[in-house]
Specification:
Layout: E1 8-9, E2 18-23, H1 35-40, E3 47-50, E4 56-58, E5 61-66, H2 77-99, E6 107-112, H3 114-123, E7 132-136, H4 146-154, E8 162-167, H5 176-187, E9 192-197, H6 206-220
Helix pairs in contact: 2-3
Length: 224
């Protein structure tokens, strides 16, 4: 199994109370998203950030990484891909939590594009529910075969709160994917919120950053 590594950012306060793991998109690497930690540090001062490099070199961007191939030749490619990438990511998450001295329930996941596919897949399948999952410009990967649908439902272990953010001008992953993901998650009784950023393509804008940070801050507040 590939051992994932990537940049880290220590909490502003000096003491981690939760961990946000940032999962980059196809053809990027961990350095692409770790800067989000800097954007959110003032709002989340007790939060450590980590951004692993995906396990494979990217065929479509030789300097970047991929969680799984995107050849578009196989209808099940994404579903197979998230499953195959999951064990290494689970291992990384456990190791990062241990590094910061945190229990498994002090985790949140943030993904962009292909990283959102991984965040949603992993976030519903951790032994302990993450505090939150935020997905930018992505989609919720599901099997296409009916026989696999039962396995898909059966593999879900938890229902963390989810925020989905998408640009209405996204040229790579249509915004309809966000609405489909929200409907699927709601049907699974996963608490889900969404936001459509006007005039935005495949990216993250200021509104998305603000909403994501606020969503995480609410999730990190002590309950009760």
């Amino acid at each position: 199994m590939t051992m994932l590594t990537g940049p880290r950012m220590a909490p502003q306060s000096g003491k981690a109370k939760q961990l946000v793991v940032l999962l980059h998109g196809y053809g990027a690497d961990g350095n692409d998203l770790i800067a989000l930690g800097g954007e959110w540090q003032s709002m989340l001062p007790d939060t450590a950030f980590a951004s692993p490099n995906a396990p494979e070199p990217c065929a479509g961007a030789p300097m970047g990484r991929q969680w799984f191939p995107l050849t578009m030749r196989d209808m099940e490619e994404r579903w197979t891909g998230v499953q195959q990438a999951a064990p290494a990511l689970h291992q990384y998450l456990d190791a990062e939590l241990a590094h910061w001295g945190l229990t498994p329930d002090r985790l949140a996941l943030v993904g962009f594009s292909q990283g959102t596919m991984m965040s949603l897949y992993i976030g519903l399948r951790r032994a302990a529910a993450p505090l939150a999952v935020v997905g930018y410009s992505g989609m919720h990967v599901m099997p296409t075969m009916e026989v696999d649908e039962a396995g898909f439902i059966g593999s879900i272990k938890c229902m963390p709160p989810v925020l989905l953010v998408h640009g209405d001008r996204d040229e790579l992953i249509p915004p309809q994917e966000m609405f489909m993901a929200a409907q699927t998650l709601a049907a699974l009784e996963v608490p889900v919120e969404w936001h459509l950023s006007q005039g935005l393509g495949h990216g993250i804008d200021g509104d998305g950053l603000r909403l994501g940070g606020a969503f995480l801050a609410r999730a990190f507040q002590p309950k009760g």
